[in-house]
Amino acid sequence: MKLLFVHPGPLMYTKVFLRLEPLGLELVAAAARRAGHTARLIDLQVESHADYGRLIREWRPDFVAFSCNYLANVPEIVDLAKATKCELPRCFVCVGGHSASFTAHEIVDHGAGVIDCVLKGEGEAGIVKLLAAVEHDRDAVASVPGAVTADGDGPTPAFVHSLDDIVPARDLLRHRRKYFCGQLDPCASIEFSRGCPWDCSFCSAWTFYGRSYRLVSPERVVEDLSTIREPGVFILDDVAFIHDRHGFAIGEAIARKGIRKQYYLETRGDVLLRNKEVFKFWKQLGVEFMFLGIEAIDEEGLRKYRKRIPLGRNFEALEFARSLGIRVAINLIADPDWDEERFATVREWCLDVPEIVNISVNTPYPGTESWLTEQRRLQTRDYRLFDIQHAVLPTRLPLATFYRELISTQRVLYRKHLNWRSAPNVALGAARCLLRGQTNYVHGMAMYDKVYDIESVLADHARPVSYEMPLPPVPISAGKGPKSSQLYIHTPRGRAGRHVDDSTERFVEATRMGTTV
Ligand code: B12
Ligand code: SF4
Questions:
Q1: Helix residue ranges per DSSP H, 436-483
Q2: CB contact at 8 A, 291 and 331
Q3: For ligand 2, is residue 238 a contact (CB within 6 Å)?
Q4: Looking at residue 374, what is its pLDDT?
Q5: CA 91, CA 95: separation in Å to the nearest integer?
Q6: 235, 264, 183: which is closest to 439 by C-alpha?
Q7: Which residues contact 485 (CB under 8 A, 6 or more apart)?
Q8: Cβ(367)–Cβ(340) under 8 Å?
Q9: Is 187 exposed, middle or buried (0-12, 13-18, 19+ CB in 10 A)?
């Protein structure tokens, strides 16, 4: 069959800071291609809806698969599915990915007959079975593991046998030079591991994978990395180098092969402090930027976000990263309950530290524990506002004042580092990108004021809403612990699902606060 894989358009963040290749979709496409189908891929982060329409009309695929990792993309995907069925009534339309898995029934309902199936969970295993059913016996679609159709749910989704099995179909991307992460322009993506063994209440990375944690082998990493032409590489792992031995093994294999790249990675402060030697080694291999999950600057905030790493350790982690010469970015979560004084304190703290500070807004997402325990009522059910840049919970300040505080704080922090006039290294970085013929980084900087603008963010709240988010269930009190079946997409396999040694398992146990497996 002719298959078209589609990544939806950009959100606020992607327009300014970084835009990454859709690696998950490339993996699913690779699995489908291996099963004998012809695949194409279009990424609407860098191509237009008109390009999509043209491709549909001219190539006439038999099967269209949308990737829905972000809740905010749901309305766009439903509308594209409707347009697709209008043009190609016999085409099978499927949606998969992180957010689609947590809102599968709603997506099928919004489609009102145009979305044939949502395929939950990781796609490599499910897609092959789904394609076989679509090709040979459409009645069998409903019994494919992970499938949700208008007729009901199939069995629970299955894990891919091994992460080494499939190499992403990187060749399917038509505009590889459009992907960047700040000064890493152009930039490719890679995964060394999948899943997260921690269980933070505001995050769904762990609930999606049943709190499992699996590793890609060093051999397979090197095989994949040697095909990557981009000088920059974004390591997609939720928490990089949880397991020091794995980090060393990959690093050593890369060094032996003589591969030289510039890397960006994300990790936790306590992991950085526990595995200092691995990060030192990776600095030599080319780690330039690191994102540290800090989330709040005070003990109360940290407790609230259930990071059991004491604030003092977070500062120690920042100190250590600085000592390595790695440029560090941190994220703080602003609560809609913040008042002017709280914003002022945060601004002051952020201006004091040399790190790049990013501020996002506390947002309960389906698939997180916060979604099940949050007692405050949602102020909006517009999917498009669930991008952690908008306030969806009641704000203590009037909404316009909240955004004035938020956006002016974000702007002060952005200017601190990214104003090329005041920061020579930014200007130098921009010049290097331009000399390479790359304009993404400079273009992102130019877009900042347009994207992070109070009027346009407020106008987003006033748009008519065609599709409404599901309401969260009756809140259970925090600390009581939701049922497993309410949380997970992939069924947890307990300790056996986590490929870490016993000492790392104990370390995770001591730093998580979970009530579930
Ligand atoms: C890397 C990453 C990013 C990258 C972008 C990656 C990209 N190209 O889109 C960056 C840093 C830019 C980013 C930004 C944001 N992110 Co982000 N991100 C991630 C992260 C850590 C990993 C995603 C990833 O690439 N994994 C590796 C690949 C291999 O897996 P995958 O894409 O999930 O694909 C697999 C399955 O999902 C499935 N699948 C995917 N597509 C399809 C399609 C079909 C048809 C099928 C069958 C299956 C399928 O199969 C794939 C293979 O197994 C996830 C957390 C997580 N672990 O999932 C958060 C996560 C997805 N991000 C999240 C958020 C909130 C954001 C932001 C909104 C945050 C912000 N600060 O503004 C922005 C918005 C980005 C945007 N699109 O504009 C949330 C999503 C919440 C939600 N429900 O919407 C997550 C879950 C993290 C969290 N804290 O909970 N993000
Ligand atoms: S450490 Fe927490 S926030 Fe980070 S990916 Fe894991 S569960 Fe999510």
A1: 440-451, 454-461
A2: yes
A3: yes
A4: 81
A5: 13
A6: 183
A7: none
A8: no
A9: buried
Expressed in angstroms and rounded, the spacing between residue 261 Cα and the centre of ligand 1 is 23
Tell me how far apart the alpha carbons of residues 266 and 234 are, in angstroms, rounded to a whole number. 9
Ligand 1 pocket: which residues have CB below 6 Å?
A: 10-11, 13-14, 18, 20, 22-25, 27-28, 65, 67, 69-71, 94, 96-99, 119, 122-124, 126-127, 191, 203-205, 236, 238, 360, 365, 387-389
Closest CA to 267 of 245, 300, 299, 289: 289
The residue count of the chain comes to: 517
Residue 517's pLDDT is 55
Which segments in the chain show pLDDT lower than 50?
none
**220: nearest Cα among 141, 163, 305, 143:** 163
| pLDDT attached to residue 352 | 79
Q: Tell me how far apart the alpha carbons of residues 201 and 215 are, in angstroms, rounded to a whole number.
A: 24
What is the pLDDT at residue 410?
A: 87
- What pLDDT does 29 receive? 98
Q: Where are the alpha helices (DSSP H) in 228-333?
A: 244-257, 269-274, 276-285, 299-304, 311-324
pLDDT 10s digits, 18-29: 999 999 999 999
DSSP state of 308: -
Contact 55, 42 (CB under 8 A): yes
Q: How far is the centre of ligand 2, averaged over its atoms, from the C-alpha of 134 (Å)?
A: 36
Q: How much is the pTM? A: 0.95
Full DSSP string of 388-407: TTS--SPPSS-HHHHHHHHH
